[in-house]
Design brief:
Blueprint (H helix, E strand, L loop, with lengths): L1 E6 L2 H10 L7 E6 L9 E2 L7 H10 L4 E4 L2 H6 L1 H7 L4 E2 L3 H8 L1 H11 L6 E4 L2 H11 L3 E5 L8 E4 L2 H12 L11 E5 L4 E9 L4 E3 L4 E2 L2 E3 L3 E4 L4 E4 L6 H21 L6 E10 L2 E8 L7 H7 L5 H9 L13 E8 L16 H5 L4 E5 L2 E4 L2 E4 L3 E9 L2 H14 L13 H5 L1
Parallel strand pairs: 1-2, 1-4, 2-3, 4-5
Antiparallel strand pairs: 6-9, 7-8, 7-9, 10-11, 10-16, 12-15, 13-14, 15-18, 16-17, 18-22, 19-22, 20-21
Helix pairs in contact: 1-10, 5-6, 6-9, 7-8
């Protein structure tokens, strides 16, 4: 079978890496891919939002399964388009991907179906939003309603910052159309975890637990990013928390989406805030988290392709997932300036030395090839992912890989996985 993966980041590199291992797969294509992916698959020069181009390519090459990585093509309806043409495709349809594409929809859905989440309200005008800020107090969370590449969430620590953020989003166009409506919600205290599950719209198969690190600097300081690292398993997700998340979050959400006439098929990602036995949902994503995908797929023992096919066909009966006992840790290496304006075009050195380390894989996220070199081409450049018998072993291996790689202005967090050690 031929498989097409849509996307070109670290998540898609991990998906290609895992899919290419399947005995069911003869050839993998990736659009647009990146130099790291190009070592495993054939890169196709098509952008993720070129739906007609992607459809024509899938038909021409007789692709047996298309796997959609990023949120943008899902929100544009790539799954609907491919299904209309009789093609098998893994991902949420457009009317289900709204669970990520609109934070207001997501919050309203949770409220309606009893999924635990923070108190909130939705605003399109500045004055009522400021009145709500004054009522709730700070710190307070302000979210652009639409897709903002993981950066549309601001935790305002002071009233001045909160008011300025609302003005930026609603009046100043800081996030374009994504910020023309904002969700403002109470600030939750606790430890975050990522809870992902495959679903065919009825059956739900959970993935292993994981934890992302959103803030750019050590100790969860600085602005939010798309994710500076992740590890799996996450000790904060105890069996009790896992069972609660399956029953009160995943089951209620999948059933709620079906009741709304928006059956959800794909991978559903719930960002959880855990404070003792109290669990609330921060957000939903309609796709694999990035960088959580990297350590999760490193730990997945089973062939992923039967799972992807089961979801695409709408029937996960008889499908199960086995996991390695080992832990996995991914450290994101970022370009100078990220998550604000960042440098591009710096030569990356040491990739071969890192690749020589056992149980370590370097996933490319924002790279390009030029003059026989690999150079930086994005904010998050690499996801250096190590396996180990324990989380500490995996941390040590990942940072051993990081130490081999360098470029001008590189930065990364030095505390990825530290919360697991404290537990």
């Amino acid at each position: 079978m031929k498989v097409l993966v849509v996307g070109g980041g670290g998540r898609e590199h991990a998906l290609v890496w895992k899919i290419a291992q399947s005995p069911l797969v003869g050839k993998v294509y990736c659009a647009p891919g990146n130099p790291g992916i190009g070592a495993l698959a054939e890169n196709v020069p098509l952008t993720v939002d070129d739906l007609p181009g992607l459809l024509a390519f899938a038909k021409e090459k007789e692709i047996g399964l298309t796997v959609v990585g990023p949120e943008l093509p899902l929100s544009l309806g790539i799954v609907d388009l491919f299904e209309e043409h009789g093609l098998l495709v893994f991902g949420a349809r457009r009317n289900a991907a709204i669970i990520e594409a609109s934070k207001a929809f997501s919050k309203d859905l949770m409220k309606k179906y009893g999924v635990p989440t923070a108190a909130y309200d939705v605003f399109t005008e500045v004055d009522p939003a400021v009145a709500f800020i004054d009522k709730v107090g700070v710190p307070i969370v302000i979210k652009a309603d639409g897709l903002a590449a993981g950066k549309g969430v601001i935790i305002a620590q002071s009233r001045d910052e909160a008011v300025a953020t609302v003005n930026d989003m609603l009046s100043g166009n800081a996030f374009g159309s994504a910020g023309s409506r904002v969700v403002i919600e109470e600030f939750l205290v606790g430890e975050e975890a990522s809870f992902l599950a495959f679903t065919d719209g009825k059956q739900i198969i959970p993935l292993a637990s994981a934890q992302d690190h959103k803030a750019v600097f050590d100790g969860d300081q600085g602005p939010n990013t798309g994710g500076m690292g992740a590890y799996s398993p996450a000790p904060v997700v105890t069996q009790t928390i896992h069972d609660f998340a399956m029953a009160e979050v995943m089951r209620r959400t999948v059933d709620g989406m079906a009741a709304e006439g928006r059956p959800y098929r794909g991978v559903l990602y719930a960002g959880l805030m855990i404070n003792g036995s109290d669990v609330k949902v921060l957000e939903f994503n309609a796709r694999f988290g990035d960088p959580e995908c990297q350590p999760l797929l490193m730990r997945m023992k089973s062939d992923i392709v039967p799972v992807l096919l089961g979801v695409a066909r709408g029937d996960l009966s008889g499908v199960a997932i086995e996991w390695h006992d080992k832990a996995a840790v991914c450290v994101v290496m970022a370009a100078e300036g990220y998550p604000a304006d960042y440098r591009k075009g710096d030569e990356i050195r040491g990739l071969d030395e890192a690749a020589a380390i056992d149980d370590l894989y370097v996933f490319h996220a924002g790279t390009a090839a030029g003059d026989g070199k690999i150079v930086t081409a994005g904010g998050r450049v690499l996801g250096v992912t190590g396996l180990g018998a324990t989380v500490k072993d995996a941390i040590d291996r990942a940072y051993r890989g990081v130490a081999k790689i360098c470029w001008e202005g590189v930065h990364f967090r030095k505390d990825i996985g530290a919360k697991a050690l404290k537990r």
